[in-house]
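As described in the Methods, two query proteins were run sequentially through the folding procedure within a single session, without resetting any intermediate state between them. The first query and its resulting structure tokens are shown here.
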Amino acid sequence: MIEVKNSVITRDVINNAYTYEEYREMIDKLLEEGKTTGENHSDAMIHYTKMNVHRMNRIDKRTGLSEEVIEKLETVDRQMIWLVLTEAWCGDAAQSVPVINKMAEASENIHLRLILRDENLEIMDQFLFRGKSRSVPKLIMLDAETLEVLADWGARPAEAQELVDTMTGSENMAKQEVAEHLHKWYADDNAQQIQKEIAALI
């Protein structure tokens, strides 16, 4: 069990959260209105969101789970809720959330729900990256009956984080260039590391 002080993950939070299908439909509807999630609807944020829809579509259609991970998911013998903090404009979320969805679908005992970070900062602030960053996506594994926090993961696989740490340590590396290298890493990895890391937490 992971101790969370003054937990604000309530039954209402879970009941009002999105399913994966609802999350995708919500993003599509916002884009039709020239918006994305959150308050920043700039051209850049809309552009990121459109790119992320393409990424999620590709992963939905082409990415499969490894046999080892499927076998591990089939052994889950307790009802779990996987609660994910996310945002439509986040590139890491676009790379990871569809994979998390596939993993949840592989087990009849895992129920995926998604909430937006900026609408749930009280929850986000209990799961800060390195104790200071509101990085998403953040997966929180909960016991479905008690809402006890069992484990958490995010915001990106360890190898990807190491790559980002190395690149951002370089004075000459622009943010856009870091993002390009990061998304190339995701493409080359083909969702293998995220599967392994999350499966290891079960």
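Immediately afterward, the second query was submitted; its sequence and tokens are:
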Amino acid sequence: MSGGELVARLAAALGPKGCLVGDNVTGRYAADWSGMEYRPSVVARPENTAQVATVLELCNEVGQCVVVQGGMTGLVGGAVPQPGEIALSLERLNRIEEIDRLGATMTVEAGAPLESVQEAAAAAELFFPVDIGARGSCQLGGNLAMNAGGNRVLRYGMTRENVLGIEVVLADGTVVSAMNRMLKNNTGYDLKHLFIGSEGTLGVVTRTVLRLHRKPRSRVTALCAFDSFAQVTGLLQALGERLAGELSSFEVMWQDYYRFVVERVPGNVAPLEGVHPLYCLVELLGGDQTRDQEALEALLGEMLERGELADAVLAQSLADASKFWRLRDSSAEAAGVAGSFVAFDVSIPLARMEEFVSRTTAALIAIWGDGICLFYGHMGDCNLHLITTRDPTRPDMKGRICEAVYEDVARMGGSVSAEHGIGIEKRPFLGKSRSAEEIALMRTLKAALDPKGILNPGRIFSVARTQ
């Protein structure tokens, strides 16, 4: 089958809205947030699982490589087409099929935006806790493919902890439906975990059963300031001892990040006076607003009296809480203001996090002298983010910056990717976090499920392709 014949068969199977070619392929399918860009010549837009299966069966027959696309909010180039690849967009698989209030589950297609899932759960007096800054654009299938984390991992876990069942299409078009709805189901291998976090390299998730939670009745938010990292970890430990059942978020911002978003991102204001080395956003989700607010206020008051906390302010309204969160969520605007930048998403053991920030800052200053270095992240679950500037006139600088950061990550026993995956951008550094034996086993799984190597080739690691 020639390339032209393949496109004709795709068009016939998917209809006029389901197959875009040539000038009908817009820039929306060309780039994600990594900065990588390549416009594919063909975009397949199936509207159900059966059509996804048809696309993959046809492509597998001729060895045509496919890149799977969701909301295009990734940071590692995983959904950016490479030359010769067809894009498979799941944007039309966007239906919320069913909400079971008694069983606290939602059955939903992979192309549904995360925010619409959250809103549908809330309308049913339930709660879907996975939450990231790109909630309005990212799609659920992408969240599963990357095992997205976000703001509430500390209490509710990563995406995989909130998935009960999935439906997935393999590279040859085989549909595997494992749409389990129960918390307990020990009947052999739990196949969903094979595909969650696999970045679309083993199969294409088309539908899923989500685990929902009872809707929190209280939300208590505080912004705290610290004079030392030891004070930060002290508050985290105290919260774990006294309020572990309600603690959902523990977000830390180093001084350079906090001041940058306050002073240079329009619309932000500083809720606390003075300048401090570190700031922390704490949020509780519980069952009694008055009780939970009093409990957090009492704990912070005690720590202030003992000198274990520099300053703190509690949100008195949802508007206050939104202003506090806007500081933490201004990272995308901060990156835009900073100019030419490199962004990092890593995990570092808490015991070595302060050392990592100090060592990495010194290493980056040695490379670029007077650039910007902004640290922030979900410290309660060991996840740090870093935005650092680079000189666009020096093509070697990005590589030097990445090598310096990931070398320190390896030295600290951390992970080069906490929640955004490996994709193409981080592929050269996978070996700094995973052993040769682990990578070899990943390759074995890839070869078993996708022997022709057509699904997202070159993501996570390179593979030899067969026809």
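The radius of gyration is 23 Å. We note this only descriptively and draw no conclusion about the first query from it.
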